[in-house]
């Protein structure tokens, strides 16, 4: 993965790094997200009702209950800066750093360039800074297990003792996951396209017990949220009905097994162990 710093953050400067190669036969996520970066942010704010619903649900649950005034905030996999856009008007005094392996994504972000880092976060020297909130939303899906563990180790070192770590994971045990896996057998590969399903990207999914097993040695899980209670392909064929049903399910407290089965993603809110 490309790992040159695009901006200067705390105790950091430009550094050249080797590109991390995807598994043989899999598409490169950096190339994919660089290619679709120009229109990526607009997909969540445009006419597509499904993307608007999913984006707003994820953002609302990620920042729920957080006061980030005068806080250090780190967004791993910041993309085109949607989280920054959501937070900066509410917490203009926050100190926000954005990282992403895709230079194209960050180039279309409103995050000031001096606060952007290209490449894996663990390859940058951020000095002794501790973050009051670290977000990793929608990116574990494209990280291999070794890559994910490196990010988790970095987060454990740089999270403030009173800070929150918020991350999302694609839910391997969901009905949506099974339907998408089935659909892949009938979808024509399109490596040059903009659709994840046909892109050839390697998708990493995790069960609820597997997420707990990964996180609990390093973090104390405070809260779980289930996300996106729509099922492919019905969320495309009947978006209005799917979203209305999903919103009703979204009012459920906690993540009981039946709700996890109907939720494509799981969100974790965690802190460091005392």
Index terms:
alpha/beta, Rossmann fold, seven-stranded mixed beta sheet, 7 strands, disordered N terminus
Describe this entry's structure for a reader.
It is a single chain. With 274 residues, the protein is α/β, with parallel strands linked by helices. The chain has a domain at 29-171 and 203-228 and 266-272: Rossmann fold, CATH 3.40.50. Helix content is 34%, strand content 18%. It has 11 helices and 7 strands. It has helices at residues 29-40, 49-63, 82-88, 103-107, 145-158, 175-183, 196-199, 208-215, 234-237, 239-249, 257-261; strands at residues 72-76, 95-100, 116-118, 131-136, 159-170, 219-227, 265-272. The protein has a 7-stranded mixed sheet with strand order 3-2-1-4-5-7-6, with helices on both faces. The longest helix has 15 residues, at 49-63. It starts with 28 loop residues before the first helix and ends with a strand.
List strands and helices in order, with pairings.
Layout: H1 29-40, H2 49-63, E1 72-76, H3 82-88, E2 95-100, H4 103-107, E3 116-118, E4 131-136, H5 145-158, E5 159-170, H6 175-183, H7 196-199, H8 208-215, E6 219-227, H9 234-237, H10 239-249, H11 257-261, E7 265-272
Parallel strand pairs: 1-2, 1-4, 2-3, 4-5
Antiparallel strand pairs: 5-7, 6-7
Q: Could you say which overall geometry the principal axes of the C-alpha atoms support?
A: globular
Provide the structure class: alpha/beta
Number of E-state strands: 7
Unreliable spans: 1-18
Task: Please give the radius of gyration in angstroms.
Answer: 18 Å
Topology as a string of helices (H) and strands (E): HHEHEHEEHEHHHEHHHE
Give me the number of helical elements: 11
Helix content: 25-40%
CATH architecture of one domain: 3-Layer(aba) Sandwich
Give me the CATH superfamily of one domain: Vaccinia Virus protein VP39
* Neighbour order of strands in the largest sheet: 3-2-1-4-5-7-6
- Roughly what fraction of the amino acids lie in strands? 15-25%
The main β sheet shows up as: 7 strands, mixed
**CATH uppermost class of one domain:** Alpha Beta
Average pLDDT confidence is: 83
Q: In whole angstroms, how far apart are the ends?
A: 34 Å
Q: Can you tell me the CATH topology of one domain?
A: Rossmann fold
């Amino acid at each position: 993965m490309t790992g040159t710093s695009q901006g200067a953050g705390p105790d950091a400067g430009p550094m050249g790094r080797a590109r991390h190669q995807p598994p043989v036969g899999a598409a490169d996520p950096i190339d994919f997200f660089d290619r679709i970066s120009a229109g990526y942010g607009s997909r969540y704010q445009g006419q597509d009702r499904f993307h608007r619903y999913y984006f707003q649900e994820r953002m609302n649950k990620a920042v729920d209950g957080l006061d980030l005034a005068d806080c250090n905030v780190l967004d791993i996999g910041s993309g085109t800066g949607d989280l920054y856009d959501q937070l900066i008007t509410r917490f203009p005094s926050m100190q926000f750093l954005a990282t992403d392996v895709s230079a194209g994504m960050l180039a279309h972000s409103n995050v000031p360039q001096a606060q952007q880092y290209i490449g894996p976060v663990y390859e940058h020297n951020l000095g002794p800074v501790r973050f009051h909130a670290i977000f990793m939303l929608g990116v574990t899906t494209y990280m291999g297990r070794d890559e994910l563990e490196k990010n988790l180790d970095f987060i454990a070192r740089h999270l403030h003792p009173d800070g929150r770590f918020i991350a999302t994971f694609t839910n391997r045990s969901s009905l949506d996951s099974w339907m998408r896996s089935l659909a892949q057998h009938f979808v024509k590969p399109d490596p040059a396209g903009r659709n994840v399903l046909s892109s050839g990207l390697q998708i990493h999914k995790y069960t609820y017990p597997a997420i707990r097993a990964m996180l609990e040695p390093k973090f104390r899980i405070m809260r779980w949220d289930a996300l996106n209670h729509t099922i492919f392909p019905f969320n495309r064929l009947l978006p209005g009905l799917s979203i209305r049903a999903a919103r009703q399910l979204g009012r459920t407290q906690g993540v009981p097994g039946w709700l996890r089965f109907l939720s494509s993603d799981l969100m974790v809110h965690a802190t460091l162990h005392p």
